[in-house]
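Figure S7 source data.
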Amino acid sequence: MTDRRTQVAIIGAGPAGLLLSHLLAAEGVESVVVETRSEEYVAARIRAGILEQSTVDLLRSAGLGERLTREGDQHRGIYLQWPSERHHVDFVSLTGRSVWVYGQTEVQKDLVAARRSAGQEIHYEISETALHDLTGDLPSVSFIDSAGAPQRIVADVVVGCDGSFGPSRNAVPAAVRSTWEKAYPYSWLGILADVAPSTDELIYAWHPDGFAMHSMRSSTVSRLYLQVPNDTAVDDWSDDRIWESLATRLGHGQAGWQLTPGPVIEKSVLPMRSFVQTPMRHGRLFLAGDAAHIVPPTGAKGLNLAVADVALLAPALVGLLRKHDARLADEYSDTALRRVWRCTHFSWWMTTMLHPSGDPFEEQLQLSQLRWLTSSEAGATGMAENYAGLPIGF
Ligand code: FAS
Ligand code: PHB
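Tokens for the predicted P-hydroxybenzoic acid complex:
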């Protein structure tokens, strides 16, 4: 076994792990990143599409915003829709904050490029990741590297950025951790289509057949979702069936609006669940991103929450490791969890408002809430404040 000594061992080379290594390096804190998948696999995963203003501001301040500013698409708000009505909610007018369309795959590309040019040590395609001595002064991460050799990273701190299926969250003893979980009675079928978007900004549509959303990735690539039953097999949905359902649910032909179909280049089914684990620290182990929390994507919060965790954790670790000031590190879990629960509630609220449950009473409540949201400045402002994102450190 070869031992490598560093300051921070980061498990996971997704957005949380790479952004953390970037922010730490800017403050002279060394880290080593380990990742179970290949670099190409991680970069190709199609996930989030919307960046909050706080995320954009942070990426820019970290020197990661140049392509985002050039290629990203700034949006003022979203459309909320139900049969025969579509209303724009203007976040900029209501809160002064906007959102950006810039796919997680693009954020990942920018992070990988920045870390590569900085010479960041990242071990891809590892296996058998294990965490050790988390309550001692020298925690460590052992693993088998891509060549099959056993390795160990001995660090001052270990950070679990290993998403919803990584080992870090369960490295917090059961007697110490608390978890909350909710599984929703529906999933999303998402497609990436090689066709220009039929809308200028995102459309979130309530429809008796089920929820639908029109998002996008660029002026030539659209991203759309529709509510499907859990355990839906993606092969049960032909491209034609997908486009027909999207056209019905999004109101094709109403008020002169047309949904333009096109070649589907990717489709997948995404289950919907909420999950929170506390605390987000145990001894010298810190958790960030999906390793600690999962939100249904209806609120466009998943990636943004991971960034917000890292924006808090990086200065906390710099204080702990370079300035011998443990205050922010000691406060990290409680501070991060305030935003985690706010975003968890908002994601649950958007999800339960927009997905018809089949219960006639509940569906009337959903429609009433949508009518109120789109006719009351107070109601719209509350939604806008959450969707466009609260300031970091909320
Ligand atoms: P990630 O899951 O991105 O990264 C964790 C990394 O850890 C992965 O690369 C994984 O391979 C690695 N890892 C796991 N186990 C390991 C081990 N044992 N050893 C080493 N490495 C290990 N959010 C939205 O806002 N909108 C969306 O539309 C949306 N769609 C999504 C679709 C899917 C299928 C999924 C799974 C998530 C989606 N999300 C969406 C949420 C997503 O964007 C996450 O919030 C975001 O990726 C969180 O980033 P990380 O915390 O870095 O976790
Ligand atoms: C996306 O573009 O993938 C997207 C946008 C908004 C959401 C979820 C996903 O709420």
